[in-house]
Amino acid sequence: MAHEKSRCPTGAETLVSSLAASGIDVCFANPGTSEMHFVAALDKINGIRPILCLFEGVATGAADGYARIAGKPASTLLHLGPGLANGLANLHNAKRASVPVVNIVGNHASYHLQFDAPLTSDVAAFARPVSDWVHTSQSARTVPADAARAVQAARAAPGQIATLILPADTAWMPGERASGPLPVSGVTDVSAAAIDQCVAALRSGRKTDILLRGPALTGAGLRAAGRIAAQTQARLFCDTFAPRIERGIGRIPVERLQYRADEVVQQLCAFETLILVGAQPPVAFFGYPGKPSWLTPETCMILTLSHPHEAGSEAVEMLANALGAPEVRLIGSQSNFTLPADDLLTAEAVVQIVACLLPDNSIVADEGLTSTFPNYDLLATAAPHDHLNLTGGSIGGILPLGTGAAVAAPERKVVCLEGDGSGMYTLQALWTQAREKLDVITIIFANRSYSVLNQELERVGVATAGLRARSLFDLRNPEINWVNLAQGLGVEAVSVNNVKEFYDVLSSVFLKRGPFLIEAVI
Amino acid sequence: MAHEKSRCPTGAETLVSSLAASGIDVCFANPGTSEMHFVAALDKINGIRPILCLFEGVATGAADGYARIAGKPASTLLHLGPGLANGLANLHNAKRASVPVVNIVGNHASYHLQFDAPLTSDVAAFARPVSDWVHTSQSARTVPADAARAVQAARAAPGQIATLILPADTAWMPGERASGPLPVSGVTDVSAAAIDQCVAALRSGRKTDILLRGPALTGAGLRAAGRIAAQTQARLFCDTFAPRIERGIGRIPVERLQYRADEVVQQLCAFETLILVGAQPPVAFFGYPGKPSWLTPETCMILTLSHPHEAGSEAVEMLANALGAPEVRLIGSQSNFTLPADDLLTAEAVVQIVACLLPDNSIVADEGLTSTFPNYDLLATAAPHDHLNLTGGSIGGILPLGTGAAVAAPERKVVCLEGDGSGMYTLQALWTQAREKLDVITIIFANRSYSVLNQELERVGVATAGLRARSLFDLRNPEINWVNLAQGLGVEAVSVNNVKEFYDVLSSVFLKRGPFLIEAVI
């Protein structure tokens, strides 16, 4: 009997085994008491690498970055309602990127909930706004199946947020055998009719352009889009904040939709037909007094080649073939950078130097906002790289995102471009980079303000901002010292305020491995 | 017409006026685009002091601390669903403290929601789990009344979380006149029957003790509780995590319920009758395998003198009077501290030195967990002070809480006792302390681990934690350098690892004003 008992795994152990069997190999964790059995199970069962995050927003943002690069979900481990709450903002970003994530959220033992202890909350209610799938395990016996279903839900095309809530007693009670993986409903093929419709549009003589999102912005899909563009004069666009796009020398250039509604309207004003590949029709990021929300011309016909859950990359290839478009070969070389006469560091100079020095096959995670947005095109001249954006507008996600991307691709260099305001939301990511010795270079654009809000205040029609208002955008008093912050979290750092020095520092850190932060004072 | 127009206030302006008219004078803010009109209105309309926080959890935690000391709500200003999400964990704590808070959460313009722009989310769904009152303004014309109702809801006894969601167009459209304050349903008197019942119990000869929470732990209520204790031999208890309790020399001592369920069971095992004053019956913080959730003996009779929404402090006075209990005068003196022979700094030595040096009428905000909990009694020998606890178990709330308390009482010294793990969740609070020159001393107990989790792992019955599990509680690799972090956020700091130095540093910073951080390496 005692022997029997010792062989019987806990619910938590079957959870870990089942997650591992379904292909989960990383867990970004910030556990608490209710997750202790899960933690113990991580010891006993091989297959999942736990990565400690000092704040839950780091865990969820890292899971997002991991999935964007690995193409499969990581798990997070979060502590009850408040722990999940701290991770919600970056789950919002992940959801908007259609990224798969499996959240494991501990909760009170089921019988303990009725006592309304201080940490009691409606965990499922916290989860729902950001989750495509939410389930609370009812017993240790169902935990393995629940785990397999969570991964199945996360992997459903195009990628979903699955949140499994695990009452502590379902973790510590004796469980069943681990569950194997469940079949995943991957992308579905587009219909021949959708292809035909787009062929007809592109041959119609009407001005027809293409808006791409998802896998069609990478690999074979992107190359096929380039063939179509060369053959038909269609312009290729991507969203303002594409989750992932391949850029750089030799890659098909894709025009980015601008951030400001009126600028997008300018971009799109000549559109007669717009073909969507895994994208939604362009809308304004915010509503502004007297400005439009819907950004394509009213007369523009919108066709869908592929919905987000469909095989967009393959659809673009089929479309290119149907058009008889030949292969395209782009030739380019990395831009040569001449140090400008004016030595003062600007956001433009920073991006230009990054473009010039960026190692081949890097990952650029970009939340530079006012610093990087106007200089986006400069990166097209960099070595081939993946460009990742903050997708949901929930500020501060990029340091965690870059952290997760580096876990997914340890052999690739990750460069985080971050504002000094945005960076403050989840700066704890730097500690995880240091602990895991991740190869992430963080460049902080230190303009000492919420610069985007200064602009936004004018855009919403407020002409006369006084001292009280301006003080809410000003980060000068006191100045944030990013070198101190990084060092406090175990990451080597320097502050740089001239072009030559920035060039030299970046050149040298690109030759090394491990995390590093450069505060670029602009 | 143009003249007419220029005199018509925006919805945002009427919001600010109405909040101010209802007694809101502080706004802990982390605004974004959708809140720009509110920001502009803060300039135009006097009466509300905006305080910038670099993360939303700082704003909500500060509002909690402000209300605990000021006895009235502050407002927060948060940016759409994700901004609110970042503030939820500390709102959970505030809700568990029955503290009044008025959240103003911007949202997309109402007509813009349908376009499902990237920042779109179900803001009300985020708000509900932590809010007692949630409302979305439907028009600029209703904004003033909505604002007045939000403050009314927050101030309803014993204190509530009110969340007002403000679509951007209700802020920018022309509004109505500001609304005046609405009547507040304050505490209600307890019934004579409740008093009589408790008098009878205390005179019955059965062992009868009292558990106090809320205003009865301060001022006249606490003094009256002392009279009852002296007259009847009733022991006075407070919850493990009381929102606010007056302690120190000359004040009535109240026994704290322990954190661990089995220790509480020991404390309560002799109880025959328990009188609740604004408190709930004691329950375990977590459920553990084979351990009880309900902590009073099964045979213990539980009487309610006052519910949380009732006038607990007055009820205790009435009870003392009904018992004919005479005034009690406690005499004591601040403990003298003799530097121990062993110079190694320990958590106990830190708390002892704090107790010895604490200025009169200070505020101690305590989230020291394993460092301060065993040393709680030492603070009873300190000068009179308010002791604030983390009420909801949502880790990391104390740095924001101390920040808000300092805003509410600029003439009082605030001492934050914080763990090095807990402190990492919302360390951005230090920046706000520096900007506002708040008189807060933060003491970080740097034991380089999630020490409480090491203990919890054993308590849940996991005997053999291996490397992977232990790594999730270890903060050594890399070591967090709190001096760097504080300096990075504009707060002066030192690291100390021996008793003499800690004594000297604390003595000197208590003589100065403004924020300071001491990393106490223990």
Automatic annotation (TrEMBL), chains A, B:
GO terms for biological process: small molecule metabolic process. It is an enzyme of class 2 (transferase). Residues 10-114 form the Thiamine pyrophosphate enzyme N-terminal TPP-binding domain. GO terms for molecular function: acetolactate synthase activity; flavin adenine dinucleotide binding; thiamine pyrophosphate binding. Residues 390-519 form the Thiamine pyrophosphate enzyme TPP-binding domain. Its EC number is 2.2.1.6. Coiled coil: none annotated. Pfam families: TPP_enzyme_C, TPP_enzyme_N. Keywords: Thiamine pyrophosphate, Transferase. InterPro entries: THDP-binding, Thiamin_PyroP_enz_TPP-bd_dom, TPP_enz, TPP_enzyme_TPP-bd. Belongs to the TPP enzyme family. This is Acetolactate synthase I/II/III large subunit. It comes from Acetobacter senegalensis.
